Amino acid sequence: xxxxxxxxxxxEVVDWIDGCLSPLASESVLLAQSAGRVLLDDIVASIxxxxxxxxxxxxxxxxxxxxxxxxxxxxxxxxxxxxxMPGAAFDGTVEVGTTVRIMTGAPVPAGANAVVPAEYASSSxxxxxxxxxxxxxxxxxxxxxxxxxxxxxxxxxxxxxxxDVGLMASIGVAEVPVIRCPRIRLxxxxxxxxxxxxxxxxxxxxxxxxxxxxSLTQRDGGIVESIRGLNDxxxxxxxxxxxxxxxxxxVSGGSSVGAxxxxxxxxxxxxxxxxxxxxxxxxxxxxxxxIADSIIFLLPGNPVSCLCAYDFFTxxxxxxxxxxSLSWPYPKQQLTLSGKIASAxxxxxxxxxxxxEDGVHPISLSGASILSSTTRADGFVVVPADSEGFxxxxxxxxxxxxxx
Length: 404
Ligand code: AMP
Ligand code: MG
Prior knowledge:
alpha+beta; Molybdopterin biosynthesis moea protein, domain 2; Molybdopterin biosynthesis moeA protein, domain 3; 4 domains; six-stranded mixed sheet; 7 helices; elongated; binds adenosine monophosphate; binds magnesium ion
């Protein structure tokens, strides 16, 4: 065994990742499945919405000019000649002196140009008396007032919101061109690992990284192709890394330079091991590279290192391949540090912190195996490589694990 001969600075690692991020191919999904997906092509309106002038109130469709002077003391009579309902238009014309009963959303009949709300009208038999003036265009939703045919409504690259899906429905789109989700394979290595729910031998440990990684990859828009538990067995790891079908392969455990750490040399032999060893704490025994079309991430087995390396590197790659924003999906807040955080020049530190009324308390800088430090924390602080840390009282950026 020997140590890492060099550790790559975090920014160089990020540059390498960004260089691998050619967007994935497109696929077409049903409209109902499109929320949250990344749009591949612009969506251009093929129709006006509404595609006809429609009533914005329940009441009476009239020629607005004819209501001039109407009041409670000057009730103007109109002859009721029919009705227009949503989906069932009146097919005649509103001539001088006539009106049509109309419901919100119903087509405005030919000849009419205003709607008198029901509260300013009273009907008896086929006579309707109007008690207030409504000029032309009043209470009418004009054709195309929502969407004009030919307008670009949504641009390529947009992550679709619920209301975007609604807008596409309103112009009749049934299938949506989106960027394919990256397929992620998780290889969970370690002879000592067993599944929660299984009987545990004295020196076995329950495996936790797959649960963290599954959830994070899904958060970042990946589809988990498979999760495979593997012994520290070179052949088994090799064949799981060289099977096709995954855009990203994440190997948990065995990423360092120990006798049982097979994955780095497998990548070097069968592809390109671009990075092995990163100047950060935790997660320094992280590696990455490529085999055929798959980007490979070798993440340390220690649970905090695994989480941290995922967040710094793998998450970025998965979001990027799927066309999402590369930036962290964590809200950031500027807060005052209540205790000091010490780091070393040349290394990025990921420090778990909790937040209270007196400010930000560092929980842990070291302790890559202490997963509970990440559940006690409200978020984390990143100490950049050119900093020796922060003194108490410094105002710093805190990344929050939770949005609320
Ligand atoms: P490794 O990176 O394989 O040398 O593992 C480092 C430490 O992390 C060891 O104590 C392992 O038992 C532990 N570890 C490895 N993989 C996992 C896992 N999937 N879940 C929880 N702990 C793990
Ligand atoms: Mg191991």
